[in-house]
Amino acid sequence: MDEKLLGTLEPREFDDLINAFIDRAEPDTMSFAAFDQATSRLAQEAIAETIELTGSVRGNAIVFDSAGVAPVAAHGNQIFVGGLRLVVRLREPEPA
Predict the structure, then answer these.
(1) Given the DSSP bridges, would you call strands 78-81 and 84-87 parallel, antiparallel or unpaired?
(2) Are 82 and 71 in contact (CB under 8 A)?
């Protein structure tokens, strides 16, 4: 097979390469660049939706605007996603 960048492969070609790699009897190597490219592509494909949150810094806290997009809710410095609560806390700036 001719060498191609992962970004130019059709999904079926990618699946065939992965299956051929798994079925190999001998160990194989992959460059760090190719591995990074593959993981980046898989991570991008795993993102189903992007929700943007806006807010402002007030004093020593970040205050999010109401998200208003299910399943995300924001209140003050907290973000709620399903059964998960994310609390954002700001650190004091590092001395210059």
Answers:
(1) antiparallel
(2) yes
- Whole-angstrom distance, CA of residue 18 vs CA of residue 14: 6
Report the residue count for the chain.
96
Rounded to 5 degrees, what are φ and ψ at 34? -65, -40
pLDDT at 72 over 80: yes
pTM over cut 0.70: no
Strands (E), 1-96: 55-58, 61-64, 72-75, 78-81, 84-87
pLDDT tens-place string over residues 6-36: 677 788 888 888 888 787 777 667 788 888 8
